[in-house]
Amino acid sequence: MEKPSATDYAPPLTAATIWRDVPEPNRLLTVNFFKKQTAAVGIAADCHRKDFWSRLIAGLLEIDRVERGRISCFASVKPAVTNTFHGFHGGAVAAISEVVSIACARTVVAEDNELFLGELGISYLSSVQENAELTVDAFVIRSGRNVTVIGVEFKMRETSKLLYTAHATFYTMPKAKL
């Protein structure tokens, strides 16, 4: 028996299946929504270079304070990381949470211990618009021999309104005993 391929499970991306029981106005709204989301805008060539995403996220951050178990920085909501509604894209929030929590974990975990991210949970409490200035605070909730838990809070810089919270759980890789 032949092994099934990926195309056996899903239709090709170029083909669209429209259910007949969906009313015509709803079909048009849905199709137009997807066309608007995937507008025929080309992707710049430099977006394909290595570490593009890391450099983009690092360009949003400005370090304010680094202490043992605590990091504070400022983030700018630039147009490159906004969604269709000109709000801060959730993927950018997650990426910043990951970067800042790794840096915070490194303030309490020895450099020779290898960490890996086991869990990243984010609560999106409120939206923030393009060109906003945020304060991002990361702090250690718990740090032990094998597990380190970091909390991250995103607040408006002027009003200190809480916008997003995140928690990251890092596990320490066991050292090989040879």
What does it look like?
The chain has 178 residues and is of the alpha+beta class. It has helices at 24-37, 52-58, 90-106, and strands at residues 61-67, 70-76, 115-124, 133-143, 147-156, 162-172. The chain is built from three helices and six strands; from the N terminus they run H-H-E-E-H-E-E-E-E. It has a six-stranded antiparallel sheet with strand order 1-2-4-5-6-3, covered by helices on one side. A hairpin with a 2-residue loop joins strand 1 (61-67) and strand 2. Mean pLDDT is 84; it is low at 3-14.
In short:
The chain is of the alpha+beta class. The chain has helices at residues 24-37, 52-58, 90-106; strands at 61-67, 70-76, 115-124, 133-143, 147-156, 162-172. The relative contact order is 0.14.
Mean pLDDT, nearest integer?
A: 84
Q: In percent, how much strand structure appears in the residues? A: 25-35%
Structural class estimated from helices and strands: alpha+beta
Order of helices and strands: HHEEHEEEE
- The number of helical elements comes to 3
**What sort of overall outline do the alpha carbons produce when their principal axes are compared?**
globular
Low-confidence residue ranges: 3-14
Looking across the biggest beta sheet, what order are the strands in?
1-2-4-5-6-3
Number of strands: 6
Determine the N-to-C terminus distance: 45 Å
Query: Which percent range fits the helix content?
Result: 10-25%
Radius of gyration: 21 Å
Q: Oligomeric form of this entry? A: single chain
The profile of the biggest β sheet is: 6 strands, antiparallel
